[in-house]
Write a structure and sequence with these properties.
single chain; 112 residues; alpha+beta; Rossmann fold; two-stranded parallel sheet; two-stranded antiparallel ribbon; globular
């Protein structure tokens, strides 16, 4: 099986996605980016162009749950159980002691 790219940087793997986000943002339209992936990717440039960003992972049969929060039927909630990478060389960044883009525990929590 061939590896899928040689980087974890989304803009390098799919520059067309970043171009779409930028094109919409440049028209003055607020962008909510929904990342559907099976692993954390470096999304620094996409975050800079987005008014909001959602990591939906691979929702499988729970895609309806993602739609529920996007359209306001349910409240967003969730926190990272790991640090989100901030560099394209994330596989060794932690070993080198580099800071992550988002720390473990970052996210939303409902006020109780």
């Amino acid at each position: 099986m061939k590896p899928y790219g040689d980087t974890l940087e989304l803009a390098a793997l799919h520059p067309e996605d970043l171009a779409t986000i930028r094109g919409i943002q440049e028209k003055g339209i607020p962008v909510v980016t929904v990342l559907v992936s099976g692993r954390p990717l470096v999304v620094n440039r996409e975050l800079e162009c987005s008014a909001a960003f959602v990591a939906a992972w691979l929702p499988g049969s729970e895609g309806g749950g993602v739609a529920d929060v996007l359209f306001g039927a349910q409240e967003f909630q969730g926190r990272l159980s790991f640090a989100w990478p901030g560099t394209g060389d994330a596989t060794t960044a932690v070993a080198r002691g580099e800071e992550s883009l988002l720390s473990r525990g970052y996210g939303l929590r409902l006020a109780v």
